Amino acid sequence: MANKLRLGIPKGSLQDATIALFERAGWRIYANGRSYFPTIDDAEIECMLIRAQEMSRYVEKGVLDAGLTGIDWVVESGLDVESVTSLVYSKQSRQKVRWVLAVPEDSPYQKAEDLAGKVIATELVEVSKRYFAAKNVDVKVEFSWGATEVKPPTLADAIVEVTETGSSLRANRLRIIDTVMESETRLIANRSAYADTWKKHKIDSLALMLNAAISAQGQVGLILNVEKVNLPAVLSVLPALNSPTVSELSDRNWVALNTILEEGVVREVIPRLKAAKATGIVEYPLNKVVL
Amino acid sequence: MANKLRLGIPKGSLQDATIALFERAGWRIYANGRSYFPTIDDAEIECMLIRAQEMSRYVEKGVLDAGLTGIDWVVESGLDVESVTSLVYSKQSRQKVRWVLAVPEDSPYQKAEDLAGKVIATELVEVSKRYFAAKNVDVKVEFSWGATEVKPPTLADAIVEVTETGSSLRANRLRIIDTVMESETRLIANRSAYADTWKKHKIDSLALMLNAAISAQGQVGLILNVEKVNLPAVLSVLPALNSPTVSELSDRNWVALNTILEEGVVREVIPRLKAAKATGIVEYPLNKVVL
Amino acid sequence: MANKLRLGIPKGSLQDATIALFERAGWRIYANGRSYFPTIDDAEIECMLIRAQEMSRYVEKGVLDAGLTGIDWVVESGLDVESVTSLVYSKQSRQKVRWVLAVPEDSPYQKAEDLAGKVIATELVEVSKRYFAAKNVDVKVEFSWGATEVKPPTLADAIVEVTETGSSLRANRLRIIDTVMESETRLIANRSAYADTWKKHKIDSLALMLNAAISAQGQVGLILNVEKVNLPAVLSVLPALNSPTVSELSDRNWVALNTILEEGVVREVIPRLKAAKATGIVEYPLNKVVL
Amino acid sequence: MANKLRLGIPKGSLQDATIALFERAGWRIYANGRSYFPTIDDAEIECMLIRAQEMSRYVEKGVLDAGLTGIDWVVESGLDVESVTSLVYSKQSRQKVRWVLAVPEDSPYQKAEDLAGKVIATELVEVSKRYFAAKNVDVKVEFSWGATEVKPPTLADAIVEVTETGSSLRANRLRIIDTVMESETRLIANRSAYADTWKKHKIDSLALMLNAAISAQGQVGLILNVEKVNLPAVLSVLPALNSPTVSELSDRNWVALNTILEEGVVREVIPRLKAAKATGIVEYPLNKVVL
Amino acid sequence: MANKLRLGIPKGSLQDATIALFERAGWRIYANGRSYFPTIDDAEIECMLIRAQEMSRYVEKGVLDAGLTGIDWVVESGLDVESVTSLVYSKQSRQKVRWVLAVPEDSPYQKAEDLAGKVIATELVEVSKRYFAAKNVDVKVEFSWGATEVKPPTLADAIVEVTETGSSLRANRLRIIDTVMESETRLIANRSAYADTWKKHKIDSLALMLNAAISAQGQVGLILNVEKVNLPAVLSVLPALNSPTVSELSDRNWVALNTILEEGVVREVIPRLKAAKATGIVEYPLNKVVL
Amino acid sequence: MANKLRLGIPKGSLQDATIALFERAGWRIYANGRSYFPTIDDAEIECMLIRAQEMSRYVEKGVLDAGLTGIDWVVESGLDVESVTSLVYSKQSRQKVRWVLAVPEDSPYQKAEDLAGKVIATELVEVSKRYFAAKNVDVKVEFSWGATEVKPPTLADAIVEVTETGSSLRANRLRIIDTVMESETRLIANRSAYADTWKKHKIDSLALMLNAAISAQGQVGLILNVEKVNLPAVLSVLPALNSPTVSELSDRNWVALNTILEEGVVREVIPRLKAAKATGIVEYPLNKVVL
Question: Where in this chain does the record put each Histidine biosynthesis HisG C-terminal domain (chains A, B, C, D, E, F) (predicted)?
Fold first, then answer.
């Protein structure tokens, strides 16, 4: 199909967050009730809602040119696709998620090797099998439809389950004994689609803008004035990561600084800036950031 | 465990409707955030939230004494449990649901036999395999994580999918060519739990009250007065199913009737009752019905 | 069209109340977004949403067989339709509404005749013209698109406006000097449709059931027991309108009464019933009442 | 004021539940934004919103003829008013609430006497003082504006606090060592107003109807048919509290029973009724009950 | 009235969007329930809610000094008012709306002239009459209260109806055969009020600020740094409409650009800016824009 | 406690506004249902919810290091705490609130002295006593639990009540005759905690950031370009309070201005800026302002 990118959007728990991310990046996606084909305000893109677990299959077979899904499900599928960029935008936290091996709190198991001959329940069957195979531990891995945390000890001896903070595992009295894999959302592409010049350009623009919107979410802009004599002190207070833009003012003894800061450090940086004699400090919100 | 019934509640799409049904039947279930163990206002019951797909496994292994789930998932599991009663309470309609074999509208396939050698996508893998095996048709049945309707023709040649009205299949331009199985919600029990006198009594009381609440939902009470001379005409208008209670009035020429009617026929029955000279016709709502 | 009743539902302020009334009467109407043709769960009826002002025109021309609208708009149109029944179900009150002639509080006008040569603003142009013509008062009646209450004295000398309680007129400092017409909702029918046996029967059933639902809304059922010796005292307390059903009990000295009461009088009747030695007094809700 | 009852409605946490109770009892109260004088659809009543703590003062001084408030605040005020009836309608539970003496979980205090010389924080200052005085224990009782549970041990040694289930006390690691007083909502009246015939009649009617609505909330109606030969068995299953109404049917071998049951026992009674061969068992909802 | 501007706000479908626009422009308007006189936080303005259809009449007669309404209703009224500025802020799209001549899809009519002798239903009676008169086509134009799309072919042969996208016409199986007039929202003023210096200044300030808020809604700010050697390449990527502000940095080899962009082009411009070696690209939101 | 600041958050009417203010200042506070100890995303702070009336007591006793409360309750308590900064962020207005002495509209009282021997109802007992004592007026001050406005004349002769606009007093037909005290929210600190270097630094940082967020709420940023020849005219239009940042552009004849404005004056300033030949005027939102 000429000049048309077929793009997979993950259906289910990530769907709303994904549509919100695209809106911040500059694309409006409209979900139409129960249809699998949401509309998008870009004539060069066609969207399709697909479960994250099956995304890599659609992309690998070329039904889709690109799609968003977790790297866990890409690895689980064992299929060969291009990983264009990582996109960390889940609402709850901005950390990566982990698939962990967990056992009942009061069980004797301390490491994977202790589980030889046991039953492991998980939604991530293939990755779990490879994990134990790599350790030469012989276990029975059973597919779980969900609510995996309640299975031990009656229906399973241990589980391989996804977690961000571990709180759900603790609430079910489970103890983590190893990390099986880390995961995060990825923009993936079909290998031959990504070899096509037009499609590669379109996919790369998408990746750029999605990341621009992600960056802006946790950052803010800061403008301030500083007398040149105080500039070194002020600069020493700013995080080294991004060098600020220093511009000339009509009053030649002063300069203006414009910089980007992580939202979480502002409450510590502003008091230090004021102590270093910065004035006219103004924090303003950002839509997109490309450094 | 003595005098304690372990009961499985289906987690997910049926969960809210199930909790509402229990409330109408006389039990309040309180879901506690993300816990799998909701509380219930009956000291003789312990609840657990389990995906419908795994309910029969928990019941068969005796982790639970009884549970509510679809008969489709019981058959899929191939496990041996007691089916205590059917419970038809899904919100949208009160019909049974069907798992159907569907193909693209414009495909040449007219019957299961036309699909020899083809790929069938479904969430109900084992039932589908048995269906084709019984017809001696050799197909490849692949597990689908959902959104099965969009797979033909690129990722599957046909699908086995659940439907109530067929509207979602039509919207995805699929044509039904056979019914693979009918399903409905069931209260199932572990065979040895159901052999225990106390547990059987408790399960049977649950079944009775749940059905009493289900019956009441689609029915209403009707009271009316009728002169004895008009009684045959009035009785002939009432549906034959439930005979009304006829009680004596102080005025010996009249009787009062009290009966239960399907809500859907009231709009036709009341005009006929009035034509048959019934008076003082009053319709009132019901909470529970045990005929 | 054989065995199909085309029914007009008033679009706008009465729409939701009308759909709710039909549900209580036994018919579910589903509005479909912006479509003018809602679906209904009765294969013998086709619905159409029409503004109340234009209903009589659609019914008179036979585009619709029957419809619900205010008698004010029927009279305004001057068209000849059958008025099948009145239906008083507006939410705010159960009184009729009135179109009144109102003038500024501090104006000298006391009666219609004082307005000779003046400008009258109203949405009900034809009825207003006839009202003044019948009194031989020459005025200029101007059509108003709404917000008629704010027009005097700059854009009109007086208005003819609809009101239930008069509070909106008072808030705009207007004084009522006459009632031009009273109005209420009516079920109207096309004359030739109403001459057709099947359609007449269908329309009359609708009228019966809509009124049954309206009656039930403001009434409740009351059951009580009374010793025969106290029966006259108890009966004297009950409103004379509906005679109660008196039924025989196994205890021959007692009877049971079952009756229907206006909801608004219950708080006065129950204390008197108790004083008259009634026992086991129970009030229960009603869905429909046909006396 | 002739033929006008001035009635106090408790402002604050009980306000919505009180207005809902009056609606079920037959009176609609309309709160008007921030006004202290809600309107009511009864020309013989004038309402005023007053904090429960001050209700008995308004009633004792004759500013109000009657009002609803907790007996705790009546006793706290030490004022002389008529207690007309108790009204137990709080949403969470239908138990009485208790003011308890509580100390830190890990403190050595076991009884009131152990607190001699200590500081007691409470909102119920006078009642607490009298409690300790009656035991001849000398303590310092300090008024608390709320959040009393967090004061021990830094700002108080013990507290006197209201509780229904004790869960909030446990959450703040406090231990109950005594009950200071039980409380519940009461309808109270001014003594001279209650001596006036018209006002007494009006207040008693209110008390009757409010209790009728409260009774109905936790009860349901049950109708059933039973062959006379099975009547003793069926009657033995019904709770002894309310004897059912037994009425004669046209079929002389059968009778119909109509009775009122606590909602909470229905799930146990219906299975027993069926076992005792009752048929046509129907449960219906109630608005008001006066036995 | 000295130093007081009487301003009409369109009541009905545009009301909420208008109040939101004023808030973005710097004025808060508070609608007071059913009053026609909302308050505004500017002592120099008095607001009045008026239906768009009647706005030009109030403004022409001098009851209002200025008001917002559609140019369609101004032309329909035939009255002489000053058109101060156009204001395109409707939510759905930012295109102008059109009044079109539409006929049933399967009718033979292809142009206005084919409708000679036919009935045309419309809410815009006078404009429609003039349209046909200008073409010397004799038709009967009838006023429609709404739902005009369902009138053909039974109650009208063609309609003149307002549309943004044509989707409602298509849904009712109508075909557009001509555009009768284009419309958009306007700020209009009374001619003599606009001749008053103080009122003209106030109206012009309103026009300026309303347009400043409208401009900001669809635009964003963009800041970026660029090495002077790359400046021509970067500038060539930016839309020619608004020239960016180029400011000097302390590092003399670099400049900073600050510019305003249409929100819809950002997703194309940022990738090109990055390709042209711009750095530190930041997009920020705007409240108002006056270029 | 080392490196841990114990901070009191006012429970009740100010709670949500306070949590929202902290979020804008850079701290997220999570209220946990009914717990008095909300969590905060700063490991150096521990929060506690305390009623405003008791805050100074907790701070003075050292249970808390610092807290937010009204200066009225600080003065009422008579306790000695450090007042770190005022924080004016109540939603309704940004004015200070006043405790006023009010009497019935039609009473003869004109000044405090006229109330000798009378009863004064108030929630602010100690402050009121001191107010009258300072004037040598002997009155009886009674504690009121709320709804103080309805007490005169039956339960009190006058009241001391808090008000922002006086509208509630007027609605209850009361007349203000004096201001007893002005109040506003304050960040207060325990004297010895504020003497600790680490705690003082932490409290001062909090004060700085809370004020930065408060300032930003009512202000906006304004950027504009101006030819140097027009600079004096443009500068004369800007409020004198904050001098704008003037920066050099590549085009040496022009400068760019960046300034902060009160939101309320923007609608007057922008038209004047345009008249003074400023171009490219852009208003943007702010998160925090420290001048």
Answer: 216-288
